[in-house]
Design brief:
By secondary structure, the chain is of the alpha/beta class. Helix content is 38%, strand content 18%. Strands 1-2-6-3-7-14 form a six-stranded mixed beta sheet, with helices on both faces. Strands 11-12-10-13 form a four-stranded antiparallel beta sheet. A three-stranded mixed beta sheet has the order 8-15-9. The mean pLDDT is 96.
């Protein structure tokens, strides 16, 4: 029944693909996505959306709205890339190209283009069917920047009845797995420098403190819930001279758990370990929160609605050339054996939620409005996320097909909700039940987005 409006995606496919490819060509990292954000915002403005740029105090964040009143729907778009992934497109070997060492290893150029297509299709629906609105949220800095968390803290998503989103993946399926709450903290130890040969007794090693903290955290892992995660990286060793006692050193920790409340409790234990390490070494320790995410709120009614929308759209069919390209890439991947097929060939039903060790800033959106995500198979089966193989596929013809499928799936889900007020109300009721305590932003108010200086 929505075919007329979904055909808008096919009609505007060249434009949608050009936007995706343009963002791929201008890969930019968190909070610095000026060109990428502009490409999207300009395309939406040209299409008749009312665009507000620089929302939530973030220059590259924006909203673009068409229509007014209820029901109010939203789509998300990400467009930041990753450091260290300069890669030529549509090739089956690791190969760099001129330009900065940045690449779209998570497929955010496709994410952005697919969401643009969905917004255009929903606009066509609203033009013919009256009341309601669609808002496209341009969300920067998903990769370690927590862009959506700052947007949620600023109230950007308030008043939206349902948000439908997607992400590049290796399968076709509504997302059902939860995502863990997370906090990232940088611990800085300050000691006293001394000559390690001549007067070691006068030194107080900050590096020793970091190492002891890591030992303590390792012992902690036995005594926390199995669903929790604690990761670390030493970011400053205090120098390279082994005959000098290091007067400063830093270590960054990520603490994950099923809920924000459990993250706070586990983080307090990690803080105590840091204090203990400082006490043992005669150093001082301070810390700074860098970012944090809430846990993801899943809405079964939206998951089922998304599945039905996906089911009614034929999956992309790869050509012989596309299969050959994907198979050649699979041979470069760390796979125990080659999959039977190159690309996913079936739509998977919503699966029971299982434990998952990852986190996402979309979780904070899910606290503000009923939210659903879809996995869309833009990549060959086996493709690792954040890999050169993912970057290479970002402009491929099959990825374009899957991206346009995503446009239709997202738009079809929204149209189903618009046509059935009772369905939308059921989703909102599930959301109210799961968010009874209300949204508490996990990033303290004094922490601001890490926007690069000009």
């Amino acid at each position: 029944m929505f075919e007329t409006y979904l055909n808008e995606v096919d009609r505007r496919a060249p434009e949608i693909c050009a936007v995706s490819d343009g963002i791929w060509d201008h890969a930019e990292i968190a909070f610095g996505e000026k060109v990428s954000s502009g490409i999207l915002a300009d395309a939406l403005e040209k299409a008749g959306f009312e665009v507000t740029r620089g929302i939530a105090g973030i220059p590259t964040a924006f909203r673009a709205t068409y229509g007014a009143g209820k029901p109010a729907f939203g789509v998300l778009a990400e467009f930041d890339a990753l450091q260290g992934l300069n890669q030529a497109p549509c090739v089956t070997e690791k190969k760099t190209i001129p330009g900065p060492d940045i690449g779209h290893g998570c497929g955010h150029n496709l994410f952005a283009g697919g969401s643009l297509g969905a917004a255009l299709a929903v606009k066509a629906y609203l033009e013919e069917n009256g009341a309601g609105s669609i808002t496209f949220f341009g969300c920067p800095a998903e990769e370690n920047g927590a862009g959506k968390v700052y947007m949620a803290r600023a109230g950007v998503f308030e008043g939206i009845d349902a948000i439908v989103s997607w992400h590049p993946e290796k399968m076709y399926m509504p997302r059902t797995r939860p995502a863990l709450a997370l906090i990232t903290i940088s611990y800085a130890f300050e000691g006293v420098s001394a000559h390690a040969g001549g007067s070691p007794h006068l030194g107080r090693s900050a590096l020793d403190a970091v190492e002891l903290m890591n030992v303590g955290a390792n012992f902690l892992r036995e005594h926390m819930e199995t669903t929790c995660r604690v990761h670390y990286a030493i970011t400053d060793t205090g120098g390279e001279a082994p005959n000098v006692v290091q007067s400063h050193a830093k270590v960054k920790y990520i603490v994950r758990a099923l809920t924000s409340e459990k993250v706070r409790a586990l983080r307090a234990r990690v803080d105590d370990i840091a204090r203990g390490a400082a006490l043992m070494t005669g150093t001082k320790v301070s810390w700074q929160v860098e970012n944090a995410y809430s846990e993801l709120i899943t809405i079964p009614t939206l998951q089922q609605t998304a599945y039905e929308a996906m089911r009614d759209i034929p999956l992309p069919v790869p050509t012989a050339e596309e299969n050959a390209f994907g198979r050649a890439l699979q041979k470069t991947m760390p796979l125990s054996e080659l999959p039977e097929t190159v690309y996913a060939e079936e739509l998977l039903k919503p699966a029971p939620a299982v434990a998952h060790g990852g986190s996402t800033d979309t979780a904070d959106v899910s606290w503000c409005a009923p939210t659903v995500q879809m996995h869309i198979g833009t990549w060959a089966i086996g493709t690792p996320g954040h890999s050169w193989q993912a970057v290479s596929q970002g402009k491929s013809s099959y990825a374009h097909k899957a991206m346009l499928y995503a446009s239709k799936a997202v738009a079809g889900t929204i149209m189903r909700l618009a046509e059935d007020p009772l369905l939308l109300e059921r989703a909102k009721a599930e959301h109210r039940e799961k968010t009874k305590g209300g949204y508490i932003c996990p990033i303290p108010d004094e922490i601001k987005p890490a926007i690069p200086r000009e």
